Amino acid sequence: MAARTSPSTSVTRNLATWIEEVNPSSIPAEIQTRAKYLILDGLGCALLGSRLPWSVKAHDAITAIEGTGNCTVIGWNKTLPPTSAALLNSTFLQAFDLDDYHIEAPIHASSVILPAVLAAAEQQTHTTGLPIGGADFLTAMIAGYETGPRVGLALGGSHMLTIGWHSGAIFGPAASAAAVSKLLHLSTDHIEDALGMACTQACGLMSAQFESMVKRMQHGFAARSGVLATYLAREGFTGIKEIFDREYGGFLGMYSLGAEKEPRFVKEEVSKDLGEVWQTERIREKPYPLMAGTHCTVDCVRVLQKEHPERMRDWKGIVRIEAEMARAAYKKGGWRPERPATVTAAQMCVPYAVALQVLDGEIVPGQFAPAKLNREEIWEIIGKVECREVDEFDHSWAQRVKVVFEDGEVLETTVLAPRGVKPALSNEEILEKWRAVTRGVIAEERQREIEAVVLHLEDVDDVVGKLAGLLAPETVNVLED
């Protein structure tokens, strides 16, 4: 067996040690505050997503093969074992692509971490009879928020999308294991085991974006993997040691095999600046229910609509819409959809996003209702959209849109980063989004009670007792025709 790396140079060991040692007093107040708003946004996305058609299918399939357990299924008044609850609640959270993402290492952080920590908290409270306090819950969430992006940065961040991996599903198992390990107060040795067992389960193919419902579930596979790995580690089941340091069969070496860059990975990113630079600050909330790579294109169109309202309303006079973007955005979203579009494909696709914004002047959930999804006008505009990759935008969020009209007039604009990235949504805007997303999905009284618990989480003595009962009752599918 190959010799192990010394503790001082093992990035895996350094990460595991930090996870064990991090505590509320070592986390800046503004990071804790931001994390609470991330949690609130995640819960809003899960409540909205819990009764969407694909979520119902996932619920019916999983509850048919899993027995009841101790962990809440959000919006269904049911319970499942912790691994199944984490999988299903993550599927709900990712169900409408409105959830958060890290701007440099693409992972829908809350969709992986929040369902895992919720499930582990409920299981632990049921098993021990002891409540879990809000401060412990929040610290566990932050441990996950800090871990997932670092693993992603070690693999080149968005480059994983370029080569075809569903990046968040690859980075996510470690984030889930880190968060649950922290919640359960595991030792450094057991955390290292949990990370190794979580990472060996990682997978997610980006071809899931074209028509499948499974795209909604792949972050859930990561959430489930972390929960399972952590409970195995707690019982002394040995995992892969030094999972981020191993040369033969190691996580970074294997998942970077298809990389189109050198070096293929940078393992030091896994534990770089822990406790000094906070990756939680780089997690962003979405203003649009679309894949993040489409947002800058939408904002370019919005700029042109604001500056040239009459001209842009004449969309029938448009002969061509050119959208230029970085390689990762082009590979992920620059493809032409096939008719009829599924909701998944529509939300992942730049031409479809452009068509919605040009036609309706906005991007809101109701546009993806079945009766509106394949409108003739949308397909007419899609046929005018041409996407291309440009080198000048590589490693940036910048995009350019050029609109060419029949009479030869050309409108053009460049946006360096979309709203939600620069500037990030403020905490107040996240609160507004939460209320808008859950309006009609749950009653206003329930909405405000959840707000009060989450935004004062550090003062809550029993998270499960306060929160589970608010998340369990049935929700309403507001996207039905």
Automatic annotation (TrEMBL):
MmgE/PrpD C-terminal domain residues: 288-458
Gene3D superfamilies: 2-methylcitrate dehydratase PrpD
Domain MmgE/PrpD N-terminal stretches: 14-260
InterPro entries, A to Z: MmgE/PrpD_sf, MmgE/PrpD_sf_1, MmgE/PrpD_sf_2, MmgE_PrpD, MmgE_PrpD_C, MmgE_PrpD_N
Origin: domain of life: Eukaryota
Single GO term (MF): lyase activity
Alphabetized PANTHER family for the sequence: 2-METHYLCITRATE DEHYDRATASE, 2-METHYLCITRATE DEHYDRATASE-RELATED
Protein family (similarity comment): Belongs to the PrpD family.
Name recorded for this polypeptide: Immune-responsive protein
Originating organism: Aspergillus heteromorphus CBS 117.55
